[in-house]
Write a structure and sequence with these properties.
- The complex is a heterodimer of chains A (113) and B (112).
- Chain A is built from no helices and eleven strands.
- Chain A is mostly beta strands and 113 residues long.
- The N and C termini of chain A lie far apart (37 Å).
- The mean pLDDT of chain B is 93.
- The chains are: A mainly beta (113), B mainly beta (112).
- Chains A and B meet through strand 5 and strand 10 of A and strand 5 and strand 6 of B.
Chain lengths: 113, 112
């Protein structure tokens, strides 16, 4: 069974630009979560989508948004990029029930110059 | 709120040494507990988990026991290898939550 895939793996942008990251979950998984990982803050939860609806949200500004499609694939968008948005963005998928384990993708490394 | 505390790293060991990475937690109810591992340049991989008190999770020579009385889930391995060098994350998922809470991660460096 294929794992969670994320594209692109690496991205370089400049301040003020916007970026869209993509995540394809494990087949059959309906929940997709996004995390931001930085050396200073560690792993921080951004949001979770289940059946095309945002079910949970972390404490991030409105510049961070996401969506999920009917095939469970998800995209995350960051508008008006700031230097502090440089991070590894991780996507995780699960079946979607509370007791389920999350499985992570390899991440997208975003660098903002 | 829920929280996970891990020992500060890096932990530096010689090959074949015994490994312990401490993890304690605060949570309401009876959470499920996890250890994830992140190799350089990769995402997190589930290493092991335990869903109730006194359960022992194990995988690839790593073990951790869910200790409710001490609210701990320490990761152990009897003989580490250079290939175990990675960052290890302890996490919990409390009852009633879809989203796990992660610790800050502990870097392990194993020298030949």
């Amino acid at each position: 069974k294929a794992g969670v895939t994320q594209t692109p793996r690496y991205l370089i942008k400049t301040r003020g630009q916007q970026v869209t990251l993509s995540c394809s979950p494990i087949s059959g998984h309906r929940s997709v979560s996004w995390y931001q990982q930085t050396p200073g803050q560690g792993l921080q939860f951004l949001f979770e989508y289940f059946s095309e609806t945002q079910r949970n949200k972390g404490n991030f500004p409105g510049r961070f948004s996401g969506r999920q499609f009917s095939n469970s694939r998800s995209e995350m968008n960051v508008s008006t990029l700031e230097l502090g948005d440089s991070a590894l963005y991780l996507c995780a998928s699960s079946l979607g029930r509370m007791e389920d384990t999350q499985y992570f993708g390899p991440g997208t490394r975003l660098t903002v110059l | 709120g829920d929280s996970v505390t891990q020992m500060e790293g890096p932990v530096t060991l010689s090959e074949e040494a015994f490994l312990t990475i401490n993890c304690t937690y605060t949570a309401t109810g009876y959470p499920s507990l996890f250890w994830y591992v992140q190799y350089p340049g990769e995402g997190l991989q589930l290493l092991l988990k335990a869903t109730k008190a006194d359960d022992k999770g194990s995988n690839k020579g790593f073990e951790a026991t869910y200790r409710k009385e001490t609210t701990s889930f320490h990761l152990e391995k009897g003989s580490v290898q250079v290939s175990d060098s990675a960052v290890y994350f302890c996490a919990l998922k409390a009852g009633g939550s879809y989203i796990p809470t992660f610790g800050r991660g502990t870097s392990l460096i194993v020298h030949p």
